[in-house]
Design a protein that fits this description.
It contains seven helices and 17 strands. The protein is of the alpha/beta class.
Length: about 375
């Protein structure tokens, strides 16, 4: 196998590595499997850990799921192939209570949740971190596409991946400094095609396995069914109103809508296209308006996590996982955009950057509309 250049340095552990112990979070996918293989090639003692998070009917055999039945079998097969110990821990109850229930509650509150961040904050990093510590590991390695860089002060920094198309830093903004000191991300400097090449060269059985889905616990993308199972009232119909409060039609349930959405409103005979501007769970209303009404000048953030020393001032912010970072400044808990940003939804995260470095981020609690008139200038298209 042709290893990536300086692959041992990616684990950032003191020599000799043969005296070190590395725990690898193994989801059963190609990324974490390659991390485990690279760790084993260093000569360190390597232990693979898989957390069983859910096992919902169709998801067990569905390609592209994560941490369900088939994934556990795949992780075990990889561990056997590369000759490392492998343990499975049942975290279904913890995952259900801290991630799935929160996901449903956020939708019911009219917000757009990001369960992957909540999973990283709790089950994957907090709980897995503790398990790795209990096993006496020197570090916990994962298959995330981000980079851990040593700063001039010797403290670890979180940076975007070298491959922009695979960068996952948006989902890791809530990582604490203590966690970052212990975590390792060996794939951060590699493109995905190289990772698959390594998997094939080693002969890993998951070399061609499809990538996991964004929301692993949602069978067939039907997230409404997950919310409905916990909140039967989720599909209670209500009014669609314009920004002046005039009733334009009926909606099918708030869970089917998000800020910036145009499709699915089923409103005809209007002078211009309308978009979801706000969800009002108290009145059970979907509020719609023209595209210019989506322009946001400021967002109030809550539960801000800092990895960059409490930076206040000019920076770049990313308010959706697929959006490009835009120029902004931070004034206490107010994120002020240099130019109006579109489709900013409460419940999403605003992740703050200084170049490639992740400074931290927070949850969008509320937004302030830009003063009209506004000429739309998009960094991304609203959903």
């Amino acid at each position: 196998m042709t290893l990536p250049p300086h692959h041992e340095a990616e684990f950032q552990l003191p020599a000799p590595l043969s005296a070190r112990k590395i725990v690898v979070a193994m989801s059963g996918g190609v990324d974490s499997s390659v991390v485990a293989a690279l760790a084993a090639r260093t000569g360190a003692e390597v232990i693979g850990i898989t957390l069983q998070l859910y096992d919902y009917g169709a998801a067990v055999k569905r390609a592209g799921s994560c941490c369900a039945g088939q994934d556990i079998r795949d992780a075990r097969a990889v561990a056997e192939r590369i000759g490392i110990a492998h343990y499975v821990f049942d975290y279904e109850s913890r995952f259900r209570d801290s991630v799935i229930a929160d996901f449903a509650d956020e939708y019911m509150a009219g917000r757009t949740p990001i369960p992957c961040v909540k999973c990283n904050m709790g089950v994957k990093f907090t709980d897995l971190f503790a398990l790795a510590r209990d096993l006496g590991a020197d570090c916990l390695a994962t298959g995330h596409y981000v980079r851990r860089v040593a700063g001039t002060d010797g403290l670890a920094q979180l940076h975007r991946a070298a491959d922009p198309a695979r960068d996952q830093s948006y989902f890791l903004f809530a990582t604490t400094a203590e966690q970052l000191d212990y975590l390792r991300f060996p794939l951060g400097a590699l493109p995905k095609n190289r990772v698959r090449e390594i998997a094939a060269e080693i002969g890993l059985p998951v070399a061609l396995k499809p990538d996991s889905q964004d929301i692993c616990f949602v069978p067939d993308g039907d997230y409404a069914s997950v919310v409905r199972a916990l909140h039967p009232e989720a599909e209670l119909r209500g009014e669609i109103v314009n920004m002046e409060g005039r009733v334009l039609g009926q909606h099918k349930g708030l869970i089917h809508y998000t800020v910036g959405q145009r499709k699915g409103l089923e409103l005809g005979g209007l002078a211009e296209p309308l978009y979801v501007v706000k969800l009002d769970p108290e009145k059970h209303r979907v509020i719609v308006g023209p595209k210019r009404a989506l322009a946001v000048s400021k967002a109030r953030l809550m539960d801000i996590n800092w990895l960059g020393g409490g930076h206040v001032g000019q920076l770049h912010a990313k308010v959706r996982s697929l959006a490009k970072p835009v120029a902004a400044r931070l004034e206490n808990d107010r994120l002020c955009f240099e130019t109006p940003e579109y489709g900013v939804a409460p419940g999403q995260a605003a992740v703050l950057y200084d170049g490639d470095r992740v400074l931290g981020g927070g949850w969008i609690a509320e937004t302030v509309r830009a003063v009209e008139p506004v000429t739309p200038s998009y960094s991304h298209n609203p959903a």
